[in-house]
Write a structure and sequence with these properties.
Radius of gyration: 19 Å
Mean pLDDT: 81
CATH topology of the largest domain: BirA Bifunctional Protein, domain 2
Low-confidence stretches: 20-28, 262-270
Strand order of the largest sheet: 1-3-7-6-2
Distance between the termini: 16 Å
Strand content: 15-25%
Shape: globular
Number of domains: 2
CATH architecture of the largest domain: 2-Layer Sandwich
Largest sheet: 5 strands, antiparallel
Structural class: alpha+beta
Number of strands: 11
Helix content: 40-55%
């Protein structure tokens, strides 16, 4: 599953700082990814200083402003969150050492594959061309990737936060705000591509696959007891309960407003 959320710089920084134990100490440091990161010499582990500067549209080395914001509140990044099937999360947590290694290898490759796909197909900026506003492909993004094996309720939940920064280098060499509309428009297809790549990787490692939703390309791994999957699905049950609570307490919320309330709840409790 893939979920999307736009974050401001202050929101992203407070998320990073408040969850620092979760992001950095317990499960390893986040990693930079993408051709845009390479062009700013961002590689390997993410430091708070680099993270903060890039979120603000600044060069990580000297703090010089790269992305103009004209005084308005600006989207600093888009949080693209990938969540594994619960059966895969259970194998990654409780399987044999070989199974754990294969599960993580399949997962890391699938996330890396979709980051590359987004970079090749969804990295756009707005530009002027003879007085007209056009959308141009740039083929580069700056992504801060954080992989986790557990939910914050300590349920097995293999997932990755990929924070796609609001900055991309245009063909004329200028850094501009990333036009991310196509990421949202392509969410369903990106999810299918991700699931298909993950399933293929797992099959290559010898795991069997049971399709649970052919339309969405969702699946579980064969041989994992469904009752065990349900037992460890605390986070999903918590969110479902919150949706029911919001619908009961705020019947005036519907559609986009209800979705936004749910998104804020998920982020604030993540």
């Amino acid at each position: 599953m893939i979920s999307l959320a736009n974050l401001t710089s202050s929101h992203a920084m407070s998320y990073f700082q408040e969850k620092s134990d979760y992001f950095l100490n317990k499960e390893g440091k986040g990693m930079w990814s993408g051709q845009g990161a390479d062009r700013l010499n961002l590689e390997g582990n993410i430091t708070q200083n680099d993270f903060e500067r890039v979120l603000s549209g600044k060069h990580p080395d000297d703090g010089s402003l790269l992305r103009q914001k004209n005084g308005e509140v600006v989207r600093a990044c888009t949080d693209v969150t990938f969540s594994a099937p619960k059966s895969l999360s259970l194998i990654a947590q409780f399987g044999s050492e070989q199974q754990k290694q294969m599960a993580h290898s399949a997962w890391e490759n699938a996330v890396g594959h979709i980051i590359g796909y987004i970079e090749a197909n969804n990295s756009h900026v707005r530009e002027q061309d003879n007085g007209s506003r056009i959308i141009s492909q740039t083929d580069n993004i700056i992504a801060a990737r954080f992989d986790h094996a557990l939910s914050r309720n300590l349920d097995p939940q293999l997932h990755s936060h990929v924070l796609v920064m609001n900055m991309s280098k245009s063909m004329n060499g200028q850094w501009k705000a990333l036009h991310n509309d196509s990421i949202y428009q392509d969410k369903a297809s990106l999810t299918k591509i991700f699931h298909a790549q993950l399933a293929s990787n797992l099959k290559n490692h010898g795991f069997g696959i049971d399709i649970t939703d052919r339309e969405k390309a969702e699946f579980e791994i064969k041989g994992v007891n469904p009752e065990l999957v349900d037992k460890f699905s605390f986070r999903r049950k918590e969110v479902v309960a919150k949706v029911a609570e919001l619908e009961k307490d705020m019947p005036h919320l519907s559609g986009a407003k209800l979705h936004e309330a749910i998104r804020i709840y998920i982020l604030s409790s993540s």
